[in-house]
Amino acid sequence: MDTAFFQPNTDFSFLGIQHVLVVLFFLFAGMVLIRYARGRDKPTQNRLFFYLAWLVSSSIIVWTLLKWWIGPFDIKEDLPLHLCNFLALILPVFAIYRRFWMYEILVFWILAGTTQAILTPDLSEGFPHVNFFKYWLEHAGLVVFIIYATLIYDMRPTVKSIFKSFGAIQIYFIAMIVVNAFLGSNYLFISRKPDHASLLDAFGDWPYYILAEELIMVPYFYVIYLLLKRSSRVRSKELA
Q: Looking at the domain assignment, is residue 3 inside a domain?
């Protein structure tokens, strides 16, 4: 298609103006949404949560369909199996049922994994390419979504949640090993690191960066747990 949405470009750069502006935009939008939701009744809060889930999820659904329809669609790269893609795809399930065990898993997966994707994006296409919109709606949307659940529904993980989430990611990790072996793909970046600069570069080459991730994951989750626990105390003082 001869439109700016699909014309290749390499306008996006790490910590460039587009990177900074899009992060600030979603930070502001998330604050406005959560502030608005706090003053509404429960049914309205639930509807906003559901709409947000589908907005983020639709970014993956539409992007995958576009890749399949317009091409080229590469089964080794374009299935929604990278962690953030998979998370975005299943958000509506959590938005409907809002089970705490789902939150326990999602909160660490999103805040640990997706935050890295926001800080060091695996992206080259800049505005207004479709990949730019898909990437930021997906990743920044995931963070806004889980913070919404944390603050509006007053959900907080426990210490046990750390190990539940860690165990769940091991299951997903094993599943992606099988998928990658079958397809010759690199989902979850198990076979090699992302092509763009990322925090994984600090952990050495394959397989050392995988071992490093496994070693730091529980301590990293614990830091997130402490931050959320502190936010709960601050919130309690505000309501007192």
A: no
Domain-located, residue 105: yes
Identify whether 5 is part of a domain: no
How many domains is the chain built from? 1
pLDDT digits (tens, 9 = 90+) for 59-99: 999 999 988 988 789 999 999 999 999 999 999 999 999 99
Yes or no: say if 134 and 63 are a contact pair by the CB < 8 Å rule: yes
Does a structural domain hold residue 11?
Answer: no
User: For 214-222, which contacts have Cβ atoms below 8 Å and span 24 or more sequence positions?
Assistant: 217/112, 217/166, 217/169, 218/162, 218/163, 218/166, 220/112, 221/108, 221/112, 221/162, 221/165, 221/166, 222/159, 222/162
Q: With 0.85 as the threshold, say if the pTM is over it.
A: yes
Distance of CA 20 to the CA centre of its chain: 18
Cα–Cα dist 75/97, whole Å: 31
Domain containing 117 equals 17-239
Q: List pLDDT tens digits, range 96-148.
A: 999 999 999 999 999 998 988 898 898 889 999 989 999 999 999 999 999 99
